[in-house]
Automatic annotation (TrEMBL):
InterPro entries: Asp/glu_Ase-like_sf, Asparaginase/glutaminase-like, L-asparaginase_N, L-asparaginase_N_sf
Cited PROSITE patterns: ASN_GLN_ASE_3
Enzyme class: hydrolase
Stated name of the protein: L-asparaginase
Gene3D superfamilies the record matches: L-asparaginase, N-terminal domain
GO molecular function, one term: asparaginase activity
Superkingdom of the organism of origin: Bacteria
Active site residues per record: 12
Residues of the L-asparaginase N-terminal domain: 4-159
SUPFAM superfamilies xref list: Glutaminase/Asparaginase (SSF53774)
Protein keywords: Hydrolase
Chain positions recorded as substrate binding sites: 54, 83-84
Organism field: Lysobacter capsici AZ78
Keyword Hydrolase in record: yes
Length: 161
């Protein structure tokens, strides 16, 4: 992997809460700070595309994300995305040939102690370097085929269909 291209779209991983989980905004992408703190041994670039909760991502937004990734020279792309509509975006990105694309996010904001953000990012970084071309989801310590996974909202985790 020469350089990892990271595309950010918002989601819980970048949320800042102002009260008890009701009033929030999507803040600056956290992945660069996380990778710098961890001292990773690879080069990366961060391209913020949108800052939205994934429930508010539209078909036009997904096309914008797809076009931005397709335009990159990088063969390895990590996408941070909200978990609620991650599967839908992954299916759109599956139309991009010749790249390994891994989507990840967090069930708790990266700014929160005990967040799953760092673990999910680490899983995604390993996956994007080792998997063949295609689109994958890295959540809950597993790598998922977007056509065979769903988010279980009640259990707050991803699971096989």
């Amino acid at each position: 992997m020469d350089q990892l291209c990271i595309v950010t779209t918002g989601g819980t991983i970048d949320k800042i809460y102002f009260d008890d989980k009701s009033d929030y905004q999507i803040g600056e992408p956290q992945i660069g700070r996380i990778l710098d703190e961890l001292g990773v041994a690879f080069r990366y670039s961060v391209i913020p595309i949108i800052r939205k909760d994934s429930l508010h991502i539209t078909a036009a937004d997904r096309e914008l994300i797809r076009a931005a990734i397709a335009a990159q020279d990088a063969q390895h792309v990590l996408v941070t995305h909200g978990t609620d509509s991650m599967v839908e975006t992954a299916k759109v990105l599956a139309t991009i040939p010749g790249k390994t694309i891994v989507l990840t996010g967090a069930l708790n904001p990266a700014r929160f102690r005990g967040s799953d953000a760092e673990f999910n990012i680490g899983t995604a970084v390993g996956a994007v370097q080792s998997l063949p071309a295609g689109v994958y989801i890295a959540m809950n310590g597993r790598i998922w085929d977007p056509a065979k996974v769903r988010k279980n909202v009640e259990a707050n985790r991803f699971e096989a269909l």
